[in-house]
Structures are given as structure tokens and as C-alpha cells.
Design a protein that fits this description.
The complex is a heterodimer of chains A (108) and B (113).
Chain A: E1 4-7, E2 10-13, E3 19-25, E4 34-39, E5 46-50, E6 54-55, E7 63-68, E8 71-76, E9 86-91, E10 98-99, E11 103-107
Parallel strand pairs in A: 2-11
Antiparallel strand pairs in A: 1-3, 3-8, 4-5, 4-9, 5-6, 7-8, 9-10, 9-11
Chain B: E1 3-7, E2 10-12, E3 18-25, E4 34-39, E5 45-51, E6 58-60, E7 68-73, E8 78-83, E9 92-98, E10 102-103, E11 107-111
Parallel strand pairs in B: 2-11
Antiparallel strand pairs in B: 1-3, 3-8, 4-5, 4-9, 5-6, 7-8, 9-10, 9-11
Classes of the chains: A mainly beta (108), B mainly beta (113).
Chain lengths: 108, 113
């Protein structure tokens, strides 16, 4: 089973700042099948990025994904008020599919 | 617009059964892998099961193996999860997921005596 470790656990930033979230896998993710999800309180997760760097339909271009193998990054270039949420990474290259523990992006 | 709409959740006693459904639209359902993922109250995300487009490959989390069965009807663009021998620890919101296209809003399954 691939274990995904996200860091930091909490990121305190102000609107307009840049956010950099990390996801490290315990072994290489097959085909870089790594997705990033956003979840707001009481809502279902939303797909932001799939295949490490492809933006899902309708996702603003301030969200970008990068990385390969075992190290992946989600960058939010300029935080908007609606971006304060919990972010998860997910690998779907091999079963069992696994999720990171999440990074909470909170308003500083 | 992609839509994934789950149904079938509810309250059930330990040992009981439920069948979840997920109606999909807005993408080519018959060509895509589909998943069920759950989230217990206040907890993180846990993958439950997946199925390939022609149903020839399925996979399950160890926690549900032998109790849950995933299936699909491509003619109806519908995904299913048959849940038997339910346990208290199966209590969660169950989401229908296509990794690239999105997540449904979820359906709550509560297992309680």
C-alpha cells in the first residue's frame, strides 16, 4: 500500500499570498496518477488536479500541480477567499487507492 | 456538466444490508473506471472499491472485502455498491467517484442498533 504524507498539516496565509502544498509517496506512483482534491466543511471533495498536473474542468488556472515519482506539489498562485479549505492528495495508480491526511489552508 | 448522484443510504442495524446506487451523466460512463470512497464523521477519506469499464476487474479495501460488492450497468450509466454484514464502523458518507471527472455529493450510511 502506498502511504501518502502531506505537509504541512496546516498552512496559515493571507488572501493574495502563494500556497505551496506537498505530498510525498512511500513508493513511486504509477504513471504519476496523483490527484489533488479540495474539501470545504460539509461538502464533498472537488477534483482540482489529476495525473499530477492536469487541471480538472472548470478549475481556475491559479491552481497548478507538479511533480513525479514520489514527490508532488500543489501550488495556489494567489489565494482567493474561497480557497481556504482542506486539500488532499490521492494516488490512483495502484490498489488500494490511498489518500494523504490533508493540509488545512487557513486564513492568517 | 458532470453529475454523479448517489442514493440508497440510510439507517440500518448491525448485520444488515444496503444497496447504494450512483447515476452518472456528463461523461462517457462506459469507458471509465469508477470508485466508491467513504468518509466517517470527522475523519479522512477512505477508498472502498473500484471497477473497470467492462466489470472484469474489481478491487476492495481489506476492511470491506467479502462483505461489499461493486457492480455497474453501463446501459443505465449507473454504479452500485451492495453492502452486506454491515458494521458500526461502516458508518460514513459514501461517495461515487470518477477520479478525473469528479465526486458525487454522497449518501449517508448509518449503522446503529
Amino acid at each position: 500500500e502506498i502511504v501518502l504524507t502531506q505537509s504541512p498539516g496546516t498552512l496559515s496565509l493571507s488572501p493574495g499570498e502563494r500556497a505551496t502544498l506537498s505530498c510525498r509517496a512511500s513508493q513511486s506512483v504509477l504513471n504519476n496518477y496523483l490527484a489533488w482534491l479540495q474539501q470545504k466543511h460539509g461538502q464533498a471533495p472537488r477534483v482540482l488536479i489529476y495525473a499530477a498536473s492536469s487541471r480538472a474542468t472548470g478549475i481556475p488556472d491559479r491552481f497548478s500541480g507538479s511533480g513525479s515519482g514520489t514527490d508532488f506539489t500543489l501550488t495556489i498562485s494567489r489565494l482567493e477567499p474561497e480557497d481556504f479549505a482542506v486539500y488532499y492528495c490521492q494516488q490512483y495508480g495502484s490498489a488500494p487507492l490511498t489518500f494523504g491526511g490533508g493540509t488545512k489552508v487557513e486564513i492568517k | 456538466e458532470v453529475q454523479l448522484v448517489e442514493s440508497g443510504g440510510g439507517v440500518v442495524q448491525p448485520g444488515g444490508s444496503l444497496r447504494l446506487s450512483c447515476a452518472a451523466s456528463g461523461f462517457t460512463f462506459s469507458s471509465n473506471w469508477m470508485n466508491w470512497v467513504r468518509q466517517a464523521p470527522g475523519k479522512g477519506l477512505e477508498w472502498v472499491s473500484r471497477i473497470n469499464p467492462d466489470e472484469s476487474i474489481t478491487g476492495y479495501a481489506d476492511s470491506v472485502k467479502g462483505r461489499f460488492t461493486i457492480s455497474r450497468d453501463n446501459a443505465k450509466s449507473t454504479l452500485y455498491l451492495q453492502m452486506n454484514s454491515l458494521r458500526v464502523e461502516d458508518t460514513a458518507v459514501y461517495y461515487c467517484v470518477q477520479v478525473q471527472y469528479g465526486w458525487g455529493r454522497g449518501t449517508l450510511v448509518s449503522v446503529s442498533s
